Amino acid sequence: MISDPPATSDDPACPVQPPGAARGGPVSHALSRVARLHRIAAGKLLRRTGLYPGQEFLMMHLWDADAVRQSELIKAMDLDPSTVTKMLQRLDHAGYVRRSADPQDRRAVLVTATGDSCTLRSEVEDAWTELEEHTLAGLDDAEQAELARLLAKVEANLCGETADCPERSSVHPAGRREGGQRDQ
């Protein structure tokens, strides 16, 4: 079998520069690449829990809340209603959530995490701890703090550009409330 020659900076398969159309936004291009790789890494770690990427955010929301209306979950997740409905169907089938009619408005559906999801919560916490370790490997404490500070500023900038930013009214997936305060 013939192996490929090593990639060079002139090799279009391994470009050093962002694609031509992205040259006006090298930081945005880097953030997109990092976000994609982070999601792939999260997916691999979550696979052992039986969750698909994104379902852990829905469960995190439910673990921190009591019963939540499905319409509020859709807003908090900032996803298409059919996507959240499909997630809930899978999680309900797995026994991690329970859906029921809201006694105050029978047209609304309440969603709660079940007792069976307690084990799942521990597994998700372990996966996110491992993901954090992989993500921050090689960064010292000061660099980690600076990265978190800079990403919070970038997030605030982007949230300011988003008319209906869900993070403004809910707990961030990283456990921080608006303003960067960590939940206890």
Structure description:
With 184 residues, this protein is mostly helical. It is built from six helices and three strands, in the order ααβααββαα. It is globular and about 55 Å long. The model is unreliable at 168-184 (pLDDT under 50).
In short, what is this structure?
With 184 residues, the protein is mainly alpha-helical. The chain contains six helices and three strands; from the N terminus they run H-H-E-H-H-E-E-H-H.
Question: What attributes characterize this protein structure?
Answer:
globular, mainly alpha, single chain, 3 strands, 6 helices, three-stranded antiparallel sheet, disordered C terminus, about 180 residues
Helix/strand layout:
Layout: H1 26-47, H2 55-63, E1 68-69, H3 70-77, H4 81-93, E2 97-102, E3 105-113, H5 117-136, H6 141-161
Antiparallel strand pairs: 1-3, 2-3
Helix pairs in contact: 1-5
